[in-house]
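Example S7 (structure tokens).
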């Protein structure tokens, strides 16, 4: 897929629409997700125009790739979630439900996040089902059928 510079994150990078900035480096920008799926939900994007991790990992210069990985870690430390834990997630393409065609890594944190994927094992005694369903638009990639409520 060719990069479309009219996507919403390209507009944020050009300053055409606002964002709540968390961290910035020469090649990367971190900002609050507009529709948080956890108490802490921040996106980290490269400043270069890359559709997804597939495009970025194949085509970005090494300095931009190194900057991006470092920016994700630095953003998490800036948020203070390195102590309590966090999940990073980057959707690529149709099966992952990627919505914005500019590479972004989600940092999700601030509370127990539940199973990594919809349909994953649930630790006993914890109400993770509700959270898994709340998170499922961002994290469901299994295609595994949900158990029917009657079985
Ligand atoms: P994905 O499904 O991985 O492509 O995730 C896209 C993410 O971008 C979602 O979590 C949206 O809430 C988020 N998003 C969309 N528009 C904005 C915006 N203007 N500012 C911040 N986050 C946004």
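Recovered sequence:
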């Amino acid at each position: 897929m060719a990069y479309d510079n009219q996507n919403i994150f390209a507009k944020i990078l050009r300053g055409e629409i606002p964002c709540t900035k968390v961290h910035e480096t020469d090649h990367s920008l971190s900002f609050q997700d507009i529709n948080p799926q956890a108490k802490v939900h921040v996106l980290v994007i490269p400043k270069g125009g890359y559709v997804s991790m597939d495009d970025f990992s194949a085509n970005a210069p090494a300095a931009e790739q190194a900057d991006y990985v470092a920016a994700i870690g630095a953003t998490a430390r800036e948020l203070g979630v390195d102590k309590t834990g966090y999940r990073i997630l980057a959707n690529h393409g149709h099966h992952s439900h990627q919505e914005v065609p500019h590479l972004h890594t989600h940092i999700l944190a601030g509370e127990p996040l539940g199973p990594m994927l919809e349909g994953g094992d649930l630790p006993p005694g914890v109400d993770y089902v509700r959270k898994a369903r709340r998170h499922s638009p961002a994290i469901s990639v299994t295609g595994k059928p949900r158990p029917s409520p009657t079985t």
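Notes on this example. DSSP finds four helices and five strands in the chain.
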